[in-house]
Amino acid sequence: MSRMIFVNLPVADLPKAVAFYEAIGAQKNPQFSDDTAACMVFSETIHVMLLTHDKFRQFTPRPIAEARAASEVLLCLSSESREAVDEMVGAAAASGGMADPGFKQDHGFMYGRSFEDPDGHIWEVMWMDVQAMQSCPAAA
């Protein structure tokens, strides 16, 4: 059985966050969603749990970080092509997010960009040609 990851993110406006994540390719799983949380599925193994602040506080005694002021995690999704990287970042920007809050990366064998969701969480999206990377002396 493959291991799964559930990334839990606090969000200020759950319907807005759901619409944003649907726009960048995630699908809402109603089985694990209600008016306080939404399970957004990127693949069989990658899920993002969007939690209202009140719901998020049920899982931690620590204060919720302001994502635009501090970084707690670095999130990265792989992509099947350079074009798919650009498409996801473009969809994020068109859906209320911000494109490229970080540096674009283009190393030939690896290409990456980033976007910020409406709550300030930054995601990197990257594509890598593993065979080309392995033959590159600088990558070894």
Note the topology.
Elements: E1 5-11, H1 14-23, E2 27-29, E3 37-41, E4 46-52, H2 53-57, E5 75-78, H3 82-94, E6 98-99, E7 105-106, E8 110-116, E9 122-128, H4 130-135
Parallel strand pairs: 1-4, 5-9
Antiparallel strand pairs: 2-3, 3-4, 6-8, 7-8, 8-9
Structure characteristics:
2 domains, 2,3-Dihydroxybiphenyl 1,2-Dioxygenase, domain 1, alpha+beta, single chain, globular, 9 strands, 4-stranded mixed β-sheet, 140 residues, 5-stranded mixed β-sheet
Average pLDDT, all residues: 93
**What structural class results from the helix and strand content?**
alpha+beta
Could you tell me the strand content as a percent range? 25-35%
Rg, alpha carbons: 16 Å
Total number of distinct structural domains? 2
CATH domain fold name of the largest domain: 2,3-Dihydroxybiphenyl 1,2-Dioxygenase, domain 1
- How much helicity do the residues have? 10-25%
Q: What is the CATH homology-level superfamily of the largest domain? A: 2,3-Dihydroxybiphenyl 1,2-Dioxygenase, domain 1
According to CATH, what is the class of the largest domain?
Alpha Beta
Number of helices: 4
Oligomeric description of these chains: single chain
Shape: globular
* Cα-to-Cα separation, first versus last residue: 31 Å
CATH architecture annotation of the largest domain: Roll
